[in-house]
Every structure is written in structure tokens, then in C-alpha cells.
Write a structure and sequence with these properties.
The protein has 335 residues and is of the alpha+beta class. It folds into 2 domains: 152 residues, Beta-Lactamase, CATH 3.30.450.40; 145 residues, Alpha-Beta Plaits. It contains 11 helices and 12 strands. The strands form 3 sheets. It has a 6-stranded antiparallel sheet with strand order 3-2-1-6-5-4, sandwiched between helices. A 4-stranded antiparallel sheet has the order 8-9-7-12, with helices on both faces. It has a two-stranded antiparallel ribbon with strand order 10-11. Helix 1 runs antiparallel to helix 2, helix 2 packs antiparallel against helix 6 and helix 8 packs across helix 9. The chain is elongated and about 100 Å long. The termini are far apart.
Amino acid sequence: MSDIILARVSQALNAEHSLESLVRQLLEMLELVTRMESTYLTNVDLSARVQHVLYARNSSELQIPEGFSVPWDDTLCKRAMDENCFFANDVSVRWQECHAAQALGITTYFTTPVHLTDGTFYGTLCATSRDKHSFSVNSEHVLQLFASLIASCIERESLVAKLREANTALVAYSYTDVLTGLANRRAVYEQLETLFSQARQHRSRVLIAFIDLDDFKEINDRYGHRTGDDFLIDVGQRLTSLTDSNDVVGRLGGDEFLIACEIPASGQQADFIERLRRQICGHYQLGEHDIHYPGASIGTIMANPQEMDAEEAIQAADTAMYADKKRRQRGAAAS
């Protein structure tokens, strides 16, 4: 029997398994070794003082239900740990005040705590039966071995989850403008490629607005870089308020922003551009500074994705922005 168990354990460890898959195999093997009716793994939430049955294997009338929760202080596991007694075949006598065990008719109980490498108490691995069984050193060793294997699997899954979270955060960071929280240049270009692809399929157009914040240097020089940063953040929020989740809104760098959205081939851009200009110009309350901003230079194009790609569209919008800047400068000089 021991050779069979070792072979099955080796096979289980060599395969890629989730925690649930590994535990279920180990519970089945634990049943064979201990000859108990029920084997199960629990997790203990010490802060809430609750024990949860995560996975269970029941082969007879004794049923330990998965998802079952019980106050930690009322459990056999808590009593076993407090008394350093991890095997008992007289449960109804030894722990007769444990009502859950009495209700289930548990006679024999075998358990071992599951501790992680740093000493954190995770829960317990248990085997129980309504029948009376004798203590077995072999069963104890297997129980402890399986608890160690489960702890290693838990830590591996936790590490993988942390690595995935870190990777997701790193990817998000590499695509996000740190100051404004908008898409950065890299993200804008990639999102535009997607937007153009969708527009080609829909035979629609892509409206692109290239925005340059005129006189931004003067704000920095007069009020300081902190106020300048607050101004950029506020502009980013105003641009976002004009768009929805399907649109592209980003900061290309410095004082340059870009908005892009898909619109019907017959759509008009004048209304949107006018709203955009009104949104950017006007009053800004930046800390203790009350600023009136006259507005930005905005270059807009209605790109046909059948005729140009995203890179060409950005260049065209950039050219249109410089034309708008010259027009605004001429108007300011004339006034």
C-alpha cells in the first residue's frame, strides 16, 4: 500500500495542479491510508474565529460538507491543538462538549495543523470516522506529509498570484501617464490601432483631436511646477469627462494631449470641437491660485481608416494643431 501511495503522490506532484486538484487527490489517498470515512482540509480565519471546510471527501454515511463553517472555538481541531492531542478514538467521551462532533457521530478523529513556511497557521488536515480505529504511525506520517505538500501548494499559488498582480501592475504602469493617470504615448498609439481596426470593420470614421496647451510654460514659471502639474491633471479630468470608455484619451507628453473617437461616416465634428474648446478654457482653481486659462491649440481631422493608418492620422492632426496655433497667435496679435 505504501508503495502505491508514494507512486500516486509522485505522479500528482509531477503534474501541474491547482490547489483544489492536488488536495482532492491527497484526500482520496488519505482515505486509503487511514481507512477513515471522511477526509477534509479546513482553513481557519483566526481574526473572525471561524473554521471553514474547503474540500472534503466522504465515502460513507459520515458527511463533512464542503463550505461548512463553524466557530473556531467550538471545533475538534481547536481542542486537539490546545491539548496537543491530534488523535482520539473516544471523541464522544473526550470532547463530549463539542456539539458538532456529537451531532455527526464522530468516534475517531485524526488531524494535523497546516502551517506555511513563515509559521502562519493556515488550517487543518483531518480524517474522521464513526467507527473506532487504532492509532497508526503510518497514518500520522502521511497526514503530516500531505499537510506539508498542501502548504507548499498554497504558497506556490500565492506566489503565482502575487507575480501576476505585480505583472499586471507593471503593464498598467508602462501604459499610464504617471501624473494624470491617462493613457501615455505608448498606450495611445496602441489604442488608436485598435480603434482604427474597429472603424474599418464598421466603415466609420475616427475623429482625432491633437491638443497643445498654449502658454503652459508661463503657468509653470509664474506659479511653480506643482501648480503646473495640478493644471495638467485638471485638464486630463476635463478631457475624460467629454468621452466614454470606448474613446482614446491620453497625454502624449509635456503639454500635449490627444482624444480620438469613432463616429459614423456622416458624423459632424464641429459640435464636439466646440465643446472641447469650451471645456479646456476658463476658470481653474489650483490650490491657492485662481487661474483663467484662455484656451489651447487644437488640431482635428476626420480620418478615414480605409485611406490612412493611425500614425498618418496623428501626424495630420499634429499639422492641423500647428495651423490652429498660428491662427490663434495672429488673432492675439491683431487684438
